[in-house]
Amino acid sequence: MSLWVPNHVAIIMDGNGRWGKSRGLSRSEGHFAGTQAMEKIIDACVEMNIKVLTLYAFSTENWSRPADEVNYLMYLPVKFFNKKLPGFMKKNIRILVSGNIASLPDSTRKAVIKAVEQTKSNDGLIVNFALNYSGRSDILQAVRHLVLDIQHKKIDINQLDENYFQQFLYTKTLPDPEIIIRTGGEKRISNFLIWQSAQAELYFSDVYFPDFNKDLFRKAIAEVQKKHRIGF
Ligand code: FPP
């Protein structure tokens, strides 16, 4: 019997700030180190034949952080995609974004749109960045679209079901995640994929995200694979 591999893994990349502090570095240096860990996890997903990886890169709550940290987090995608896009093309990786990108700074939005456009024909791993994302705002924006459909009589309210609703979510083209991993020791979902995580396994690691590596990622997936073996 071949090993079950999840279609979709999602990660709450927590602990960057504490990682920086614990090394006498700034929080932003922690975020940069987090980006490097992220690259390794992306490679692990390609190696393991996982189809979708969603990464919680910036939540709508993150705007309340100090301005220099927010500015750095907005600059990171610009730097990251500039450097990494050719490699993503070679690896056949497709970039998607979930979140309200309309209110990102111009340079961030342009970098993200360029990455999505340039990789749109790739059919390997999908890396979906949750950027300016929150689960509640995802549901709310979906409700706005839904109400328009009801007003335009595209759907009768009695026919409304989960499938119809989820076509309006940011993640509409993606399967629900089977696993949500959170690093950094806290055991909370933090407004991440709250609709999509209904059936997901939750896996918590105490390791700060910059120290999360391929082995720890494989260990997390193996835990869930074990449960699937027992379940079937
Ligand atoms: C949470 O750690 C992490 C974030 C708010 C940002 C995560 C972003 C990255 C790893 C890089 C994103 C890069 C791109 C290209 C989109 P925290 O700051 O809350 O850590 P703490 O709990 O220790 O304070």
Helical proportion, percent range: 40-55%
Anisotropy-based shape: globular
User: Could you say which structural class the secondary elements and strand pairing correspond to?
Assistant: alpha/beta
Number of helices: 7
- Bound ligands, each once: farnesyl diphosphate
- Gap between N and C termini: 11 Å
CATH fold assignment = Undecaprenyl pyrophosphate synthetase
| Cα Rg | 18 Å
User: What is the top-level CATH class?
Assistant: Alpha Beta
Side by side, the strands of the main sheet go 3-4-2-1-5-6
CATH architecture: 3-Layer(aba) Sandwich
Query: CATH homologous superfamily?
Result: Decaprenyl diphosphate synthase-like
Low-confidence stretches: none
Instruction: Report the count of strand segments.
Output: 6
The succession of helices and strands, N to C, reads EHHEHEHEHHEEH
Mean pLDDT: 96
Descriptive account of the structure:
The protein is of the alpha/beta class and 232 residues long. It has one domain: Undecaprenyl pyrophosphate synthetase (3-Layer(aba) Sandwich), CATH 3.40.1180. It has a six-stranded parallel sheet, with helices on both faces. Helix 1 crosses helix 2 and helix 3 packs parallel to helix 4. The protein binds farnesyl diphosphate.
Structure keywords:
binds farnesyl diphosphate; 232 residues; single chain; Undecaprenyl pyrophosphate synthetase
Q: How would you sum up this structure in a few lines?
A:
This protein is α/β, with parallel strands linked by helices and 232 residues long. It has seven helices and six strands.
Would you spell out the secondary-structure blueprint of this structure?
Layout (H helix, E strand, L loop, with lengths): L7 E5 L3 H7 L4 H22 L3 E8 L7 H24 L3 E5 L7 H13 L7 E8 L1 H17 L10 H5 L12 E4 L18 E4 L9 H18 L1
Parallel strand pairs: 1-2, 1-5, 2-4, 3-4, 5-6
Helix pairs in contact: 1-2, 2-3, 3-4
